[in-house]
Amino acid sequence: MATVPNQRLANLRSLVVDDMQTMRQNIRTQLGQLGINNVDQAGTPDEAIRCIRNGTYDIILCDYNLNRETNGQQLLEFLRSQKIISPATLFIMITAEAGYDHVASAAEFQPDAYMVKPLTGAKIADRIERLLDKQNALRPIAGRLKLKDVEGAITECDRLLQKEPKWAIEALRIKGNALLELSKPEEARAVYLSALGMRDDMVWARLGLAKCDQASGRFDEAKQTVMDVLEKNSRFVGAFDLLARIAEEQGDESAALDALNRSYQVIPSARRSRMVGDAAYRIGDLDQARTAFDKALSHTKGSLTAQPSDALSLAQVYVDAGDPALALKLLATASKNHGEANGFAATQAAVEAQAHVKLGDMDAAEKSFVLAKSLSAGARADTATLALAKAAFSIGLDSEGAEILSSAVKADHENSRILSLARKVLKDMGKESLTSGIVDGAVSQVMSVVTEANALMRNTHFDESLAKLEEALQRMPDNTGVLMAAAQLHLLWMSQKGLNLDYVERVNNYLAKLDVLMPGSERVAKMYRFLRDTLSRVTKK
Fold first, then answer.
1. Is residue 411 a contact partner of residue 479, using CB atoms and an 8 Å limit?
2. Domain total for the chain?
3. Helices 522-540, 480-497: inter-axial angle, 10-degree rounding
4. Contact 206/232 with Cβ under 8 angstroms?
5. Is residue 138 part of a domain?
6. Which residues have C-beta within 8 Å of that of residue 209, sequence separation ≥ 6?
7. 71 and 127 share one domain
8. Do 140 and 156 meet the contact criterion of CB atoms below 8 Å apart?
9. What is the DSSP string of 400-467?
10. Is 192 left (phi over 0), alpha (psi -120 to 50) or beta?
């Protein structure tokens, strides 16, 4: 019997992803019976990515078993981590495996729902209806979060808890995260304990307690809580990720690498291979870094999910490990697919310069270095800049290498990974004695600019203070510390002197850039709150 069309679903735009045409057509027919006629189809992960990049979908129904290289879970991870789909897009995983919920519960990026084959129109309608009900209930909270109004989101969570207790678990989860974002770990702890009082098997709430300890500097307690979670849920990837972050904060990069390795064993994806490779490279474990980046390339070979950084990172590992010819061969192949990608050519040339030095071809090395330097001009400080510095030291241009490395550190002196890699460059090149002068010195120079600007502000030299930071941003436009200080001091200026629309625009520009440079940062969220509070006060005067 045909399913009765559902007017609530009729305007939804859907994408069906399945490698079997008969299954895609079957699901499309069932959606049509529900009144959902705007349905696109994709037979491969790459087709799905193209469809999503070319349009917006309300619902994606994706089969778990897509092909040998990329399954539905890995596709979801790519789409979410790269922010290719909107948070409002409902992602439903379809599987023939009744135990898929065990896989989904382990994943960092979870589907909104999963359904077990065989599907019927009635089952699909029921699941979508429930998801839309949930989405509708959470819409006021999502709206506040989209506006960076974290406190407003907490207020909406409290309203939902009072008005619709059926969504209590979701409201408590969001509220706990929001309180941690506002650096209120003890209030967040009370929320997580409340959730556990309702159901003591919720892993996210137990990890929330660990995050509260982490935020309060109680790292050993945080680690023990995570270990307790893993004892009962050995496949929960989020717990390994938290364990890695705690280890990094304690300065134990080997323990962080171990945690990331264990997470890869649970979900062997390209993204997790990449994380393992990065961590292994930072501590100098070239064999493990080589294996990890090679796996990342294998996971994404011939796919739109491939990332240029994987080939560049592996090529750098080859050079460091004494395989320069292999590095050049890999880069020549990778350039055919990624040559037009932003920053690829600059890093490629910098790594090639190092490889040519290892092969004894100094003329080729110098040509590659000149090309890398010209392509890097004006680019944001990142691993490409560090590769360029390494190339300069390799050629014997020590002063130039030091200048490039110092500039890279000054451009983002609060980025612990940039600092770690900068120190590694000097260690690898036998220049470790220069670390204090180059790396630490660059950090001190930037901090002194911020300190002087703050001192000028405290002494009511407002305009001089802002001018100093604006001048610093001309030289270091992507320095997160200077951007943060500039936003703060402009808001303090308005707190004292009143509304200035030009300064409001400046602050919004600073924060927009920080959103890109520091996605999900609680420091940026606090600055958004400071902006709202400042505007509220000065407009009332």
1. yes
2. 4
3. 20
4. no
5. yes
6. 189, 192, 193, 225
7. yes
8. yes
9. HHHHHHHHHHHHTTT-HHHHHHHHHHHHHTT-GGGHIIIIIHHHHHHHHHHHHHHHHHHTT-HHHHHH
10. alpha
Whether the Cβ atoms of residue 366 and residue 395 lie closer than 8 Å to each other: yes
Residue span of the structural domain in which 178 resides = 149-233
**Maximum distance among all alpha carbons in the chain?**
79
Sequence-separated (6 or more) residues with CB below 8 Å from residue 173: 195, 204, 205, 208
Within 8 A by CB and 6+ apart from 369, the residues are 349, 350, 353, 388, 391, 392, 395, 397
DSSP string, 334-369: HHHHHTTSTTHHHHHHHHHHHHHHHTT-HHHHHHHH
Concatenated DSSP letters for 453-474? HHHHHHTT-HHHHHHHHHHHHH
Report residue 327 CA to chain centroid gap: 28
User: Does residue 108 share a domain with residue 186?
Assistant: no
Alpha-carbon span 541 to 532, nearest angstrom: 15
Q: What angle do CA 195, 197, 202 make, to 5 degrees?
A: 50
Distance separating alpha carbons of residues 144 and 152, to the nearest angstrom: 6
Mean pLDDT score of the chain: 90
β-partners of residue 114 are 93
pLDDT value for 1: 39
In a domain, 389, yes or no: yes
Q: Identify the top-confidence range among 262-266, 269-273, 355-359, 513-517.
A: 355-359
Give residue-wise pLDDT tens across range 420-475: 889 999 999 999 999 999 999 999 999 999 999 999 998 989 889 999 999 999 88
**Do 344 and 320 meet the contact criterion of CB atoms below 8 Å apart?**
no
Cis ω before 45 (30° cut-off from 0): no
Residues paired with residue 39 on neighbouring β-strands, in sequence order: 14
Q: Show the tokens assigned to 236.
A: 């929960």
pLDDT tens for each residue of 162-205: 999 999 999 999 999 999 988 899 999 999 999 999 999 899 99
Q: Is 38 in contact with 10 (CB distance < 8 Å)?
A: no
Domain stop point among 233, 267, 299:
233
CB 386 within 8 A of CB 408: yes
What pTM was computed for the model?
A: 0.85
196 found inside a domain: yes
Q: Cα separations (Å) of 467 from 18, 378, 445?
A: 57, 22, 17
Say whether 16 sits in a helix, a strand or coil.
strand
Question: How long a stretch of residues is the chain?
Answer: 541
**Pairwise CA distance, residues 222 & 219, whole Å:** 5
Which residue(s) pair with 16 in the sheet?
41, 61
Same domain for 341 and 430: yes
Residue 183 is encoded by which pair of tokens?
């650096």
Q: What ranges make up the beta strands (E) of 56-199?
A: 59-63, 90-95, 113-116
DSSP state of 63: E
